[in-house]
Specification:
57% of the residues lie in helices and 7% in strands. It is mainly alpha-helical. A two-stranded antiparallel ribbon has the order 1-2. β1 and β2 form a beta hairpin. α1 packs across α2.
Amino acid sequence: MDIYCPKCGEPIELDYLHDVARTAEMTFAEIYEDFMRRGCPAVDSSCSSIADHERADASAVLAQISDDCDEIAILMEDLFG
């Protein structure tokens, strides 16, 4: 499942966040929270230059109302297919 950068709307696989957390010696919750706050730079990437503002905005709002990454991924799939 994908979650989306709250800055540029770029999709990120949840499994990839697990890999980043392991490499950075952080918990998944820590890296997920950092990603939802800072976006792509939290996973050592730069935000896409072609931003999808609609997805980014939806991701940011959903992160404010839920801390359940699976729920957010499902809602984003429902919204954007």
